[in-house]
């Protein structure tokens, strides 16, 4: 481009900066919207992929009904293609905080390699009694407090833990839980408050509840290569898991049999030893009884001897007493005799000496000698009697001592008898205790035998990441953003092209004389064309660059900020997709320079002389209103002028209407997306799936002990029904789709749990024999209509040929409903009901009931519809931010279009506006004269936009294709009102901004004619 042309072009840009900036802004907005939405999903996936890879989220999760041990983990690690296999422990438990309040937590063991946790506050645990906790459920102030394993837990649960208290040392995010979902539980009210992670030695168990595997090959997050890789891995992982579980089952069985046999041997040995001890104790007691009997006999004999001795002593004492009595009498006689002799002696002393006296004295002497002899005899008898008395006293003392001995012996005998009685009692107690212990031991052995007999072949599950709720939801959420990005930018570029066409058309028409002068001066058509191409192209390139850079940053950051409400995946990663940028640049250049070429081509073909003369005005024509005298004659003059200006200039009219209509359509579509998204959870879980919860059993209903479940149902459920559910493929022609097949045991009861109806709320009868009811999106994807024949086939190659009898409204997942009779007739056997739908009593808490159901025998899982509703509502709520971003961009686009078109409108009518100002119109009247047309055109454009928006909204929702979700495509009346009001608000803002331009019009300059 020659320097003179370049200078004039740059001057043109400077002097018409508003027009230039309009092109730049509209291109920047379109490119920013396009690239921003397009890179958002890759940016989200990159951020998520880096976070999960950095924290080594597992590839496969292995579960078994018999658990795993170290030997199993070693065997899994030896498999080719396995980078690392780690056994892990998890358990749900009732936890008490320091205030004593109880909640339900899930405790996980920390792994060395996989499923890392990211500490946000505090530190990682270093001791068995330390833990890190869920950042969604705990805060920084909880660090240092203690979590206690409640005594209200089952004994088996308490035994899982090495300790009873765990100190919180950190708050963390876990790569295993990337979103807000924490799952359900059989404890408490059925809802988990959160999770905790503790070191492996914080558990007291040798059995792993799960094994996590990281595979050797790495692929991008959610890529088809990764999905294919996992599918291939499943082919060997599932058999390997079954083999490992079977081997552990055999070991457990052998160990159990050995323990039972060893227990029987130990029991027999213990019983034998105990019997011997009891026999010895019994012999000792019998010997003790014999000794006691002998002692009793000896004591009795001793008492008899004492009695005999006392009798003999009594007799002897009587004799002594009698003898003493006689001796006392003798002593008295002797005393009397001595006294008499004394008297006789006195008499003899008075007698005269002589023979008589001598004879008398001799007689007295003889008598005295006799008395003395008798006295001596009596004294000797007294001495002998006294000695006898003393001997009797000694005998009595001896007897007393013997009595004391016998009393002591009797007391000892009583003690011996008591001890013997206690011995017999202890013997009986030991004998009973042995009998009880033996019975208990035999019962334990019997229970062990029953458990061994009931020990079933292990069931194994190999789960990929797609079964992790957070991982699966993140993919769905990112897909929604991608669906929007495939539609909206196209409309933005169309509006951008409209703005470019309008701007450049007006610019070329305004510079018609200048083009003629340049041609007259010898400038080639290419050079002149280059001036306008540079004008529009530079605006487009700059706008593209700005939009590309800002869009690549702002959109991912804003949308990621919204998704961070639900997800914990680190910070967003900014992606500059240069390929996308090149595409944007090409499209921007085509929209700007392409429209410029189309606009200038006609003018440049004219000769210079023709171009330098003013363009002849178009001949005036009557507008439609003028042909309606009833209306036209009653209109004021200024209203007539405005009407002529609106309808006479067709190009301006269509540009304004289409531009404003496009903005209204975008606003309406943005609000409509929100309306279509927010209602699906209510429609699905309050209007269609009207059951409170669904249950999956471990075994078919008629093969399991369901007494525990039925007892819970009798207490808590208003009603329940058995259901057969399985994953099935539907085929019609060359189209196939996966779905969940539902077969209720009693078709007449299903209306209490499912409300089958069309999108127009017309009830659908449950299908009869050979018929099927399909959900709406499923039928649409397969092209199936009422009356068509479809084929259903499950993994066991069971095939059903069915006629579509109804198409039911449905929004979450894909279902097909058939009757039990249909299955039985075509498959040849009744379906195995392994599920149930439940409606709880009105006064019962659904989560408490779900916990009780989950804790009952034979129940594998429980899904509460209220939780599903919250989950999908939260997922859809995150889209509000995306919709707000779309509405904001649509509003910006509306402002730019209105500003540009209004600016052009004023610019091309400068002479007209200057004329009415010269005629004495006041400022407000002048503004009203100009902007009245804008408001009318805005109203017409908004009306057209409502029609365009309706179809654009349907087109957008059709292209937001998420496999498990069907949207309730509608636009609420309030959204229509919002779209119209916002359009007029933007128009009002533009009119207010343009008032200054009206004030700046130079009337003298504007009314000059070209000479």
TrEMBL record:
Keywords: Cell membrane, Coiled coil, Membrane, Transmembrane, Transmembrane helix
InterPro entries for this protein: ABC3_permease_C, MacB_PCD, Membrane_comp_ABC_pdt
Ranges that cross the membrane: 20-37, 487-505, 532-560, 580-604, 653-673, 881-901, 934-952, 972-993
Coiled coil: 246-298, 385-458
Statement: the UniProt record of this protein carries the keyword rRNA-binding: no
One cellular-component annotation, GO: plasma membrane
Domain of life, source organism: Bacteria
Pfam families: FtsX (PF02687), MacB_PCD (PF12704)
MacB-like periplasmic core domain mapped to chain residues: 656-853
Entry annotated with the keyword Endoplasmic reticulum: no
Compartment(s) of residence: Cell membrane
Segments forming domain ABC3 transporter permease C-terminal: 486-599, 885-990
Bilayer topology annotation: Multi-pass membrane protein
Name of the molecule in the record: ABC transporter permease
Native organism: Eisenbergiella tayi
């Amino acid at each position: 481009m020659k320097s003179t042309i370049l200078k004039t072009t740059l001057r043109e840009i400077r002097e018409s900066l508003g027009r230039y900036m309009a092109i730049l802004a509209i291109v920047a907005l379109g490119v920013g919207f396009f690239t921003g939405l397009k890179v958002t999903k890759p940016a989200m996936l990159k951020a998520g992929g880096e976070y999960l890879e950095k924290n080594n989220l597992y590839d496969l999760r292995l579960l078994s009904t018999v658990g795993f041990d170290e030997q199993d983990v070693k065997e899994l690690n030896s498999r080719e293609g396995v980078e690392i296999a780690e056994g892990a422990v998890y358990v749900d438990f009732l936890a008490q905080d320091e205030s004593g309040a109880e909640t339900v937590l899930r405790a996980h063991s920390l792994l060395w390699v996989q499923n890392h946790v990211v500490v946000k506050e505090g530190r990682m645990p270093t001791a068995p009694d330390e833990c890190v906790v869920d950042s969604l459920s705990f805060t920084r102030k909880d660090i240092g407090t203690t979590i206690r394993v409640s005594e209200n837990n089952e004994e088996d649960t308490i035994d899982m833990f090495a300790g009873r208290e765990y100190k919180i040392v950190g708050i963390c995010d876990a790569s295993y839980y990337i979103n807000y979902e924490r799952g359900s539980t059989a404890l408490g009210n059925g809802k988990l408050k959160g999770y905790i992670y503790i070191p492996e030695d914080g558990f007291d168990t040798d059995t792993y509840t799960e094994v996590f595997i990281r595979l050797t090959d790495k692929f991008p997050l959610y890529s088809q290569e990764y999905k294919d890789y996992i599918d291939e891995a499943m082919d060997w992982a599932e058999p390997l898991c079954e083999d490992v579980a079977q081997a552990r089952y055999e070991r457990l069985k052998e160990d159990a049999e050995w323990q039972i046999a060893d227990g029987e041997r130990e029991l027999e040995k213990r019983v034998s030893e105990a019997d011997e001890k009891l026999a010895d104790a019994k012999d000792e007691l019998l010997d003790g009884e014999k000794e006691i009997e002998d002692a009793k006999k000896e004591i009795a004999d001793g008492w008899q001897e004492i009695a005999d001795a006392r009798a003999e002593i009594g007799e002897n004492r009587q004799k002594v007493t009698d003898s003493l009595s006689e001796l006392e009498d003798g002593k008295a006689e002797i005393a009397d005799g001595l006294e008499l002799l004394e008297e006789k002696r006195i008499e003899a002393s008075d007698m005269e000496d002589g023979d008589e006296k001598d004879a008398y004295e001799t007689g007295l002497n003889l008598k005295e000698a006799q008395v003395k002899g008798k006295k001596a005899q009596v004294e000797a008898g007294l001495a002998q009697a006294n000695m006898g008395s003393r001997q009797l006293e000694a005998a009595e003392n001896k007897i007393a001592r013997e009595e004391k001995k016998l009393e002591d012996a009797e007391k000892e005998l009583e003690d011996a008898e008591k001890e013997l009685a206690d011995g017999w009692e202890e013997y009986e107690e030991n004998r009973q205790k042995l009998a009880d212990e033996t019975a208990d031991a035999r019962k334990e052995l019997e229970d062990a035998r029953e458990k061994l007999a009931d020990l079933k072949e292990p069931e194994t599950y190999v789960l990929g990441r797609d079964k992790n709720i957070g991982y699966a939801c993140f993919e769905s959420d990112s897909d929604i953003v991608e669906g929007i990005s495939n539609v909206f930018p196209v409309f933005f570029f169309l509006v951008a092209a409209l703005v470019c066409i309008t701007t450049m058309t007006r610019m070329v028409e305004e510079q018609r004389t200048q083009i003629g002068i340049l041609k007259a001066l010898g400038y080639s058509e290419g050079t002149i064309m280059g001036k306008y191409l540079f004008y529009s192209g530079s605006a487009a390139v700059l706008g593209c660059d700005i939009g590309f850079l800002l869009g690549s940053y702002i959109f991912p950051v804003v949308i990621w900020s919204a998704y961070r409400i639900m997800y914990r995946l680190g910070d967003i990663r900014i992606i500059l997709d240069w390929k996308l940028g090149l595409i944007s640049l090409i499209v921007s250049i085509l929209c700007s320079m392409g429209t410029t070429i189309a606009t200038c081509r006609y003018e440049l073909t004219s000769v210079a002389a023709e171009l330098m003369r003013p363009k002849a005005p178009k001949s005036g024509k009557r507008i439609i209103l003028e042909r309606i005298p009833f209306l036209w004659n009653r209109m004021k003059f200024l209203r007539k002028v405005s009407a002529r200006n609106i309808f006479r200039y067709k190009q301006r009219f269509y540009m304004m209407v289409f531009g404003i209509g496009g903005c209204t359509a975008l606003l309406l579509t943005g609000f409509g997306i929100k309306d279509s998204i927010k209602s699906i959870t209510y429609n699905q879980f309050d209007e269609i799936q009207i059951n409170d919860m669904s249950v999956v059993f471990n075994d078919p209903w008629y093969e399991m002990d369901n007494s525990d479940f039925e007892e819970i149902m009798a207490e808590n459920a208003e009603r329940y029904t058995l259901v057969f559910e399985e994953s099935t493929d539907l085929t019609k022609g060359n189209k196939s789709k996966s779905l969940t097949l539902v077969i209720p045991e009693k078709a007449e009861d299903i209306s209490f749990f499912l409300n089958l109806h069309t999108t127009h709320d017309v009830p659908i009868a449950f299908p009869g024999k050979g018929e099927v009811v399909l959900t709406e999106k499923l039928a649409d994807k397969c092209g199936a209509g009422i009356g068509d024949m479809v084929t259903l086939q499950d993994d066991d190659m069971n095939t059903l040929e069915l006629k579509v009898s109804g198409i039911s409204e449905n929004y979450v997942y894909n279902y097909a409903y058939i009757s039990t009779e249909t299955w039985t007739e075509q498959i040849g056997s009744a379906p195995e009901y392994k599920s149930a739908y439940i409606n709880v009593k009105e006064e019962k808490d659904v989560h408490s009931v779900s916990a009780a159901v989950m804790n009952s025998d034979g129940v594998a899982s429980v899904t509460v519809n209220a939780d599903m509703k919250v989950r999908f509502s939260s997922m859809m709520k995150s889209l509000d931010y995306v919709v707000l971003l779309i509405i904001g961009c649509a509003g910006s686009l509306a402002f730019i279009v209105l500003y540009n078109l209004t600016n052009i409108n004023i610019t091309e009518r400068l002479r007209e506006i200057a004329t009415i100002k010269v005629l004495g119109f006041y400022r407000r009247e002048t503004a009203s004269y100009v902007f009245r047309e804008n408001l009318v055109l805005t109203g017409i454009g908004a009306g057209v936009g409502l029609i365009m928006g309706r179809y654009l909204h349907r087109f957008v929702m059709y292209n937001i294709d998420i496999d498990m979700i069907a949207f309730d495509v509608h636009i609420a009346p309030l959204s229509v009102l919002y779209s119209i009001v916002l359009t007029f608000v933007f128009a009002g803002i533009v009119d207010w901004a343009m008032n200054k331009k009206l004030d700046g019009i130079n009337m003298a300059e504007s009314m000059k004619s070209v000479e």
